[in-house]
Design goal:
Helix content is 0%, strand content 55%. The termini are far apart. Strands 2, 4, 5, 6, 9, 10 and 11 form a seven-stranded mixed sheet that branches. Strands 1-3-8-7 form a four-stranded antiparallel sheet, with no helix packed on it. It has 122 residues and is mostly beta strands.
């Protein structure tokens, strides 16, 4: 069973920075259970959950939503089974609960974390 645990959220002023982490744990058997991709989603109050960024676990190729391009950087350390999201130039609109998701070798989201709160004060 895969478990994801996020950390690093908090309250910062607009223009500030935060670094989120997501640790992956579990035992994987076979190529279909391996981590293919990791993603960060966020959900603001009253809003739908949206994809913020994702990273191919093998190649490190990133994807960013337009709203965070140039401000957020996704990375991973496969030796530590950990994904990161460096968030710079934060805006009040970035306020949300941030969740990490795992995509397995079948291309399915099969795990997500409990979320970490990010609050940006104007």
């Amino acid at each position: 069973q895969v478990q994801l645990v996020e950390s690093g959220g908090g309250l910062v002023q607009a223009g500030g920075s935060l670094r989120l982490s997501c640790v992956i744990s579990g035992r994987f058997f076979g190529p279909y259970e391996m981590t293919e991709e990791m993603s960060w989603f966020r959900q603001a109050p009253g809003m739908q959950r949206e994809l913020v960024a994702s990273i191919n676990w093998n190649t490190g190729d990133p994807y960013y939503a337009d709203s965070v391009k140039g401000r957020f950087t996704i990375s991973r350390d496969s030796t530590k089974n950990t994904m990161y999201l460096q968030m710079d130039k934060l805006k009040p609109d970035d306020t949300a609960i941030y969740y990490c998701y795992r995509t397995n070798g079948l291309g399915q989201y099969d795990a997500w974390g409990q979320g970490t709160q990010v609050t940006i004060a104007s």
